[in-house]
Amino acid sequence: MRQSQLFPKTIKQAPKDAVALNHQLLVRAGFMNQLIAGSWTLLPLGWRVANKIIQVIREEMNSTGAQEVLMPLMHPKEIWNETGRWESASEVMYKLKDTRGKEFALSFTHEEIFLDLARKYLQSYTDLPIKLYHFSTKFRNEPRASSGILRGREFLMKDLYSIHESKQDFFKYYEQVSDAYLRAFKRFGFDVIVTEAAGGVFTKNMTREYQVISPVGEDTIFVCDKCRAGLNKEISKSKPGDKCPKCGQGLLKEERAIEVGNIFPFDTYYSEKMKVYFTDKDGSKKPVWFGSYGIGITRVLGTLVEIFHDDKGIIWPESVAPFKIHLVQIENTEKVKKAAEKLYNDLLKQGIEALYDDRTDKTAGEKFADVDLIGIPYRIVVSEKTLRQDCVELKRRSEKKIELTRINRLLRFLNEKIKNKDEK
Amino acid sequence: MRQSQLFPKTIKQAPKDAVALNHQLLVRAGFMNQLIAGSWTLLPLGWRVANKIIQVIREEMNSTGAQEVLMPLMHPKEIWNETGRWESASEVMYKLKDTRGKEFALSFTHEEIFLDLARKYLQSYTDLPIKLYHFSTKFRNEPRASSGILRGREFLMKDLYSIHESKQDFFKYYEQVSDAYLRAFKRFGFDVIVTEAAGGVFTKNMTREYQVISPVGEDTIFVCDKCRAGLNKEISKSKPGDKCPKCGQGLLKEERAIEVGNIFPFDTYYSEKMKVYFTDKDGSKKPVWFGSYGIGITRVLGTLVEIFHDDKGIIWPESVAPFKIHLVQIENTEKVKKAAEKLYNDLLKQGIEALYDDRTDKTAGEKFADVDLIGIPYRIVVSEKTLRQDCVELKRRSEKKIELTRINRLLRFLNEKIKNKDEK
Fold first, then answer.
1. Residue B308 DSSP one-character state
2. Contact call for A41 and B74, based on CB within 8 A
3. Which of A153, B17, B324, B376 is buried most deeply by CB count within 10 Å?
């Protein structure tokens, strides 16, 4: 994409109400814009990153045998009444009444909607397991929404739901999803701590949370300095400095953390309430074992910025960067323009995503500031000086070093660097 | 994907309330399921088709220089008040109040939200044009929702918004989008009639509608039998049998039609109300020229079924089919299983999307009925009989003819047939 066309331009000053770093940087760099507190438009750059995050998670969810669907966002009261959550989760739900007097809740989650869908098709054990997920909008009436895109009133989530014939089959899949989560988080570059925690309006069971340590996190967790086991402070019987109850060797340390994912085991609690029964091999009717598994897409987006940045801007991991290359033309001579245009087209032809700063009304300094703010992994500079040596300048966003690289070797180099992820 | 794993199974009988053919076939074949009247879950097959439709439209929108974003769905009353639509479009809007007493409308469209976003960044003519689109959920309080997925209360839409410095620039882009629409609809296999129509709650100007002739359509249009010009009956001064007012040669014929897309020119009406002004070259402040452009994603899905089917099921065009190949193993001998598995893996390796009917509890007749119902373009059958000649059976869903094809020539044949779209 040509930066001269990109909407919007970057902004020098962060909005006054932007306390969180992700809020400041994502708004300044043009990734998102706030409609109202807790509700964001994902702008072209932000939507590109969100889609990269979605694709990583999609691949990992598919690898567990889950199937992608899209469930509705406006849900009839009757379904929520079946589990009692129309009342018990009332605080977090947005509710409305249509002109015919019918009552609805907006999707703050989809357990009831998934179970309603599954029970329409479920007859016998041969229909199990059923594992469906979607990427969709969630609405939560949060008392505060001040951490940038980390906690929204309207946000994007991946939620997976699965039902099983037995406890054993459920927990086998539960571990499979947990492994898939760890793979996805690793691809984002997160060092994730898995913690035990309480289930809130979801379940009385213990749940598993996937936490990324960060000073802006809203959770307080205790992490073992040896085995990296985690415990949410809310449910911990230990305190910081205690021996780890898991490995018995390390010491617990208190950390602030952002919860980027969670897994809820529901046993048969919801399926009994919603009468999601199947006929087992012996002919008996049994309720299914049920679990749900969430990852906040927009929260991952914000967390990436909280973790990967410096004082100049964002430093995207390659796996989710909006573009791989930021191609910068810093003089507007015919020679530079021609060389930059050719390189841009060559990159496109090779399928290497590039943002091409073709603007003619910006100084080199302004352009480099934008490069650092936006945070694309590789910067390539074309100038009269580099062209005199048939070269371009190549710099990683995460490094200070600038290399002069011959143009005729650049594409091969980039193809190797970018496409072969194992060699990085 | 293995059909033994696919959720859900097909259904023999259409639901009793299913009047529309798209409702009957899409539910029976397992593409969608109704949550409540006018609200559907897109199941794995249906979501695959929706994504294919989205990708075609995305490519055509990008080709006009538009940029993809994602705008929120829950909108504050204040913004809708600026144009007066909080009141004037009240009938179609779902409204709600949160626990703090703040009022919201759910997205029935996004004109106001786009303009609010654009005016935050817009300063001078050098910032124009701005052309943003998204694929997102719309909520409309429709009095009736009985045409399957053709008219929903919650549905998916592509909506594009653009603002421009002048009438001339606006109408130039308007025609560019219109051309992109025609290309997209052609890729879906639609024979589209472009009609002039009234703008409803959107505008007092004439709008352009993209209509597909079908007996289940809710619109009545007059079409010239010579030049194919169209007029919506609502605004037509002519009647069926009259000479075409456009070409003056053909005669107008009355048709029922489904509106799959529309384009609204708003002049400066909304931008004046919302104070979306820019500084022009001469230093004067001017309101932007504004337009919006919609395509109903889920309506396209339903229309495809209304247009492309026979008495046995759906016949998807290749451009949007959920899979390209339906691979069917009709005996469960080791030899057949092994050959079918190998072929399935070879297809995957070549990047050819296949649904593999690996089920061992279905007869050949049941499998063929599912193939016809689901409507994937190519059926490949592996059986003891075909293997005796080192062959598989190849049949197009749209044709009766069955060809015996050598396995070692099949992949090359499919690659040519499927990947090279120009040769079809």
1. S
2. no
3. B376
ipTM value for the complex: 0.97
Give every residue of chain B whose pLDDT is below 50, as ranges: 420-424
Chain B residue nearest residue A155, CA to CA: B72
pLDDT at A182: 98
CATH class of A21-310: alpha beta
Residue B208 contacts by C-beta under 8 Å, 6 or more apart in sequence? B178, B194, B195, B196, B197, B262, B263
Q: Taking CB atoms and an 8 Å cutoff, what residues of chain A touch B154?
A: 72-74
Hey, where are the domains in chain B? 21-221+255-310, 323-423
Instruction: Say if residue A265 is preceded by a cis peptide, omega within 30 of 0.
Output: no
* Separation CA B132–CA B42 (nearest Å): 26
Residue A121 in this model has a pLDDT that exceeds 70: yes
3-state secondary structure of A362: coil
CB distance B342 to B283 below 8 Å: no
Q: Is A402 in a helix, a strand, or coil?
A: strand
A80 within 8 A of A113, measured Cβ to Cβ: no
A-proximal residues of B, 102-161, CB under 8 Å: 104, 106, 113, 116-117, 120-121, 127, 130, 132, 134, 137, 139, 141, 153-154, 156
pLDDT at B397: 98
Burial class (CB in 10 A: 0-12, 13-18, 19+), B369: middle
Rounded to an integer, the average pLDDT of A220-226 is 95
**Residue A96 with chain B: CB contacts under 8 Å:** 94-96, 106
- What does the alpha-carbon distance between residue A243 and residue A239 come to, in Å, rounded to a whole number? 9
DSSP A3: T
Q: Which residues pair with B402 in a beta bridge?
A: B395
CB distance from A91 to chain B under 8 Å?
yes
- The minimal CB distance from A121 to the residues B8, B99, B113 is found for B8
Compute φ and ψ for A236, nearest 5 degrees: -80, 135
Please tell me the distance in Å from B161's CA to the nearest CA on chain A. 13
Q: Which residues of A touch B137 (CB under 8 A)?
A: 73, 137
Q: pTM for this structure?
A: 0.97
CA A417 to the chain's CA centroid: 24
Instruction: Note the CATH number of domain B323-423.
Output: 3.40.50.800
**Is domain B21-221+255-310 classified as CATH 3.40.50.720?**
no
Which chain B residues touch A120 with a CB distance below 8 Å?
33
CB atoms within 10 A of CB A198: 14
The amino acid occupying position B250 is G
Confidence of residue A149 (pLDDT cuts 50, 70, 90): very high
